[in-house]
Amino acid sequence: MAGTRKPVVEVRRSQRRRRTVSAYRDGERVVVLIPDQFSRDEESEWVDRMLARLAAREGRLARSDDELLTRATRLIDLYLAGYGARAVPTSVRWVTNQNGRWGSCTPADRSIRISHRVQDMPEWVIDYVLLHELAHLIVPSHNARFWALVGRYPKAERARGYLEGVAAASCAPLPS
Question: Is-above-0.70 flag for pTM?
Answer without folding.
Answer: no
